[in-house]
Amino acid sequence: MSRRNKWVLALMLLLGVAIFAFSLRDIKFSVLINDFVHINFWWFGVAVLCMVIYLGLEAVIVKVFISDRIQGFTFKDAIRIPLVEQLFNGITPFSSGGQPAQLIALMQTGVDAGKASSVLLMKFVVFQSMIVINFLVALVIGFNYIQDKLHALAWLVVFGFTIHLAVIVGLLMVMFWHAFTKRAVAVVLYPMRWFMKRERFDRMAHNIDSKIDSFYAESVRISGKGKLMLKVFGITFVQLLFYYLIPYFIMLALGYTTANIVMVTSLHVLIVMVISLFPIPGGSGGAEYSFEMIFKSYIASNSKLVLAMILWRLLTYYFGMLAGLVAMVIRPDKVVEEPDSINE
């Protein structure tokens, strides 16, 4: 990690402590400790297991994609990728640092940069597609609830969905309307020539153009591998399901055993969509506020509501970042790529 990234990580940890402290301002510390001591640690362990499975299944997806092209890629190398992604997603606005960090991590194992970029783009397409599909289902189930309780937040959810859908549409255009997409991107980029030096603009345009070509080539290659894509879509669906179930098991741990698993899971899907709109790394502030506002109707006790929020945030945000720090110091295995076959 660069010195700048270390400073940002330290800042995000301090910001998290400050947000937790602010949330606890009206709650006696003794009450919070009493609530924590009396939680059902078995159910909380299930919530922890859900997060571990979520990260493990993403590693499986990475290994499936890479092993389709390269022999000798180990699961140890595969598990490093989602952990590094969690770390850099957590310290960059809009989770923008996750993709470059994964690319570097794959290159450290000896995977060619072009192949690594293509694999990560395909993984991103599948992941975003499943998020959009899950969101549509959750929208049908939980939108009326959010609209009744929080009018403004409901429209933030819709706005977040629009952005994710636009990303998917753009990627699908690259896959199926390659030439048109390149011309459209060139038109969109053209006004930037007025504000950038010619050399810098040309370098940026060439980089974007090459990424479009690389992604298109990978999509053509993999389009004939229906079983592989079906397998990855299935794994991604299960992966996200475990992630979305985390608040439900936290509620069970706090004694709310009558919680509706479908509604709670759907509300978590909508929360995740809202978090993606906040520019602060990890959606800090917005994530905690959204959780408390949405789940306060389910968790009557204010101290338990804040405790649920803290446990949820520790699992879904800070756990991945700390695991990413561990992954950064693990020495990767090396693969030796064979030259591409003529038929590939």
UniProtKB/TrEMBL annotation:
The chain crosses the membrane at residues 41-66, 124-146, 152-177, 232-255, 261-284, 305-330. It is a multi-pass membrane protein. Its EC number is 2.3.2.3. Its main location: membrane. It is found in: Cell membrane. Keywords: Antibiotic resistance, Cell membrane, Lipid metabolism, Membrane, Transferase, Transmembrane, Transmembrane helix. InterPro entries: L-PG_synthase/AglD (IPR022791). It is an enzyme of class 2 (transferase). It holds the Pfam family LPG_synthase_TM. It catalyses: L-lysyl-tRNA(Lys) + a 1,2-diacyl-sn-glycero-3-phospho-(1'-sn-glycerol) = a 1,2-diacyl-sn-glycero-3-phospho-1'-(3'-O-L-lysyl)-sn-glycerol + tRNA(Lys). Belongs to the LPG synthase family. NCBIfam families: flippase-like domain. Catalyzes the transfer of a lysyl group from L-lysyl-tRNA(Lys) to membrane-bound phosphatidylglycerol (PG), which produces lysylphosphatidylglycerol (LPG), a major component of the bacterial membrane with a positive net charge. LPG synthesis contributes to bacterial virulence as it is involved in the resistance mechanism against cationic antimicrobial peptides (CAMP) produces by the host's immune system (defensins, cathelicidins) and by the competing microorganisms. This is Phosphatidylglycerol lysyltransferase. It comes from Levilactobacillus spicheri.
